[in-house]
């Protein structure tokens, strides 16, 4: 079975990376941050395998860093490490998280009728390039049920429209809680989420919008692009906020079109960009490479 094969791959990945962690930090920029943090990791016998950092305006701006490290016995040491690091974080006014690579993020995918973005994520997952625990697929249409269930992934059909949105979201929120979901991916889920739903999952809902934002926000972007006579179309993956299609952007890409392409042909061309842009954004989130600052992102 497909799911058994994937689960075996994921289990092997967990075992291989049981001593690997990631420390994500955002704080006011000041001298001594990297020296202090790396010295702390050294005290616990950790070896840094990747360190990325960025200062947004070094003269009094914000500092971001992502440190990936190997630490023998990490699971045993993690509680003490987090407790001791609290003192360092207070000194530098840090927002911080320790994430453990073997703890794969439990992911829910929302989809409507069009399957191309969902399929891309499932293909990447099957091939071992998308390191997530895909726990559930939720849809307001039945079209993708057979595809999803063929991979032994639970599929939940919940009809949705704006008249029953609150009732639908109550069912969805219960499923997300029951399945202990860490990340929600809107893979062409063509419904607007309520502020309450969004507020319950800050920076944990990733959407794909089928235009190169900020151009053509909202519905029917390909038709509007065709009417405008554009020569480039694109796709944008972003975190969902209460402002439609205006959340922090994670990834974007484009495809070239010309006067011979109809709106329908533009849709076909644009699907390639949609698939890869969403897959990149989800992969980077799963690897803790995306740090949000106000309405922007730093992607390491």
Write up what this structure looks like:
This protein has 300 residues and is α/β, with parallel strands linked by helices. The chain has 2 domains: 18-100, ACT domain (Alpha-Beta Plaits); 106-299, 3-Layer(aba) Sandwich (Rossmann fold). The protein has helices at residues 2-16, 33-43, 74-92, 116-126, 145-149, 165-178, 195-199, 221-228, 263-286, and strands at 20-28, 47-56, 62-70, 95-100, 106-111, 133-139, 155-157, 183-186, 205-209, 232-239, 249-256, 290-293, 296-299. The chain has a 7-stranded mixed sheet. A 4-stranded antiparallel sheet has the order 2-3-1-4, with helices on one face. It is globular.
Helix and strand topology:
Blueprint lengths: L1 H15 L3 E9 L4 H11 L3 E10 L5 E9 L3 H19 L2 E6 L5 E6 L4 H11 L6 E7 L5 H5 L5 E3 L7 H14 L4 E4 L8 H5 L5 E5 L11 H8 L3 E8 L9 E8 L6 H24 L3 E4 L2 E4 L1
Parallel strand pairs: 5-6, 5-8, 6-7, 8-9
Antiparallel strand pairs: 1-3, 1-4, 2-3, 9-10, 10-11, 12-13
Helix pairs in contact: 4-9, 8-9
Q: Which percent range describes the beta-strand content?
A: 25-35%
* Structural shape: globular
- Name the CATH architecture of the largest domain: 3-Layer(aba) Sandwich
Series of H and E elements: HEHEEHEEHEHEHEHEHEEHEE
The percent of residues in helical segments reads 25-40%
- Biggest sheet: strand arrangement: 7-6-5-8-9-10-11
How far the N terminus sits from the C terminus, by CA atoms, comes to 35 Å
The largest sheet, given as strand count, sense and whether it forms a barrel, is: 7 strands, mixed
Parts with pLDDT < 50 across at least 5 consecutive residues: none
The third-level CATH topology of the largest domain is: Rossmann fold
By CATH's scheme, which homologous superfamily of the largest domain applies?
A: Formyl transferase, N-terminal domain
Determine the number of helices (DSSP H or I, runs of at least 4 residues): 9
How many strands in all? 13
Mean pLDDT: 96
**Structurally, how many domains make up the residues?**
2
CATH secondary-structure class of the largest domain? Alpha Beta
* SS content category: alpha/beta
* Gyration radius over CA: 21 Å
